[in-house]
Write a structure and sequence with these properties.
The protein is of the alpha/beta class. Helix content is 40%, strand content 13%. Bound molecules: nicotinamide-adenine-dinucleotide. Nicotinamide-adenine-dinucleotide binds next to helix 1, helix 4 and strand 9.
């Protein structure tokens, strides 16, 4: 039976991935790791097992792997795109130092590893429409630089040492369980929350900033499907493009206005627009579809209906401290920046 470690377990993806892994493997089989315990209702300590550790600390990681007899790691701990521009040195140390620690320990502990990359690996010279799997990769942010470097590191460890490390280039992810903390695609969650609460919204990206996006259930499914695939089927060992749908802020605003006619959105693009300008509008994910059968379930309308149903039922995004505006490290350390 698998014994799993999820680093960055308190984050937007980790908090949902852990729930699904616990359902699949049993709660005691999934060890969560983050810089601090998750906020617990009524001040109760988190359900065990939870480990407080920094992924830059190799000895601490090794100790966790040994004590819990871990065989599979979902290494999600990272600083994200907007935060990366505010803290480039720390982003390099956490994103690549942490990954190098996990890959080295994966060799000695015989681990299977999942590590997420991002559409931030693409840059200004990358074809913007239907961006191929193999193409020009000239990331314009420190985050993107760490993601592309990490992809090459994963590929190197696979080729040189036969390590079973697998990766996806997630697009911007939308979810209702965790709040955005200030980033490039977080406007989508902000806009949903405003519309669900009957407020108008001022968007920090331009109305026509079209980007690849995905609903969280599809991102979790893609992650699990890739990890379940037979190793021989995988032709990509840096990181797979995965796509669901693309939309611009004006498209999401229109989808919300059809369901909430009073909702209104205005636009005041800030520096995050410059990051968005370097990313593709859509990506080609034929390799993922051919190799391990990737197909998303949600399009923009299905996601919009589901998001509003959950937010309307009183479920509220949690965490996140609007870190972009404050310029400091927020409550959740990295902020909750979508891609
Ligand atoms: N959310 C997206 O839209 C998106 C898109 C593309 C790729 N990704 C990637 O997916 C992964 C998870 O993203 P997320 O959205 O859940 O991020 P998040 O910011 O919501 O969560 C990251 C977590 O990592 C933890 N962390 C940060 N530094 C750490 C350290 N030194 N040691 C231990 N834990 C540390 C944070 O406390 C946080 O809980 C990241 O690698 C990210 O680059 C996310």
């Amino acid at each position: 039976m698998s014994r799993i470690l999820v680093t960055g377990a308190n984050g937007q993806i980790g908090s949902e991935l852990v729930e699904v892994l616990r359902e699949r493997h049993g709660p005691s089989q999934v060890v969560r790791l983050d810089l601090k315990p998750p906020p617990a209702p009524n001040g109760r300590p988190p359900d065990a097992p939870f480990e407080v550790a920094d992924v830059r600390d190799r000895d601490a990681l090794a100790d966790v792997l040994t004590r819990h007899k871990v065989d599979t790691v979902y290494h999600l701990a990272s600083l994200l795109s907007a935060t990366g521009e505010q803290h480039p040195d720390r982003t390099w140390e956490v994103n690549l130092g942490g990954l190098k620690n996990v890959l080295d320990l994966a060799q000695t502990h015989d681990l299977q590893v999942f590590w997420p990359s991002s559409i931030a690996v693409f840059g200004p010279s990358t074809p913007k429409i239907d961006t191929p799997q193999d193409t020009v990769l000239d990331p314009a942010t420190m985050y993107g630089v760490t993601k592309r470097s990490g992809e090459l590191l994963c590929q190197y460890y696979h080729r040189r040492y036969g390590l079973d490390v697998r990766s996806l280039r997630y697009p911007g992810l939308v979810s209702y369980k965790t709040a955005p903390g200030g980033g490039t695609t977080d406007y989508a969650v902000d806009m949903f929350t405003a519309a669900a609460e009957g407020r108008d919204y001022t968007c920090f990206l331009a109305p026509d900033a079209r980007l690849p996006m995905m609903y969280m259930p599809d991102a979790i499914q893609a992650t699990l499907d890739l990890m379940d695939a037979h190793s021989d089927a995988l032709s990509v060992r840096d990181s797979y493009n995965v796509a669901a749908f693309s939309f611009a802020p004006q498209d999401l605003a229109a989808a919300l206005q059809r369901r909430r006619p009073g909702f209104s959105c205005t636009y005041e693009p800030d520096r995050r627009q410059q990051i968005a300008d370097t990313w593709p509008a859509s990506v080609n994910d034929e390799a993922a579809r051919a190799d391990w059968g990737w197909t998303p379930d949600y399009d923009l309308d299905a996601m919009t209906d589901d998001m509003l149903a959950h937010l309307g039922a009183g479920e509220r995004v949690r965490g996140g401290e609007g870190e972009w505006e404050s310029g400091g490290m927020g409550e959740r350390e990295s902020g909750n920046v979508g891609t």
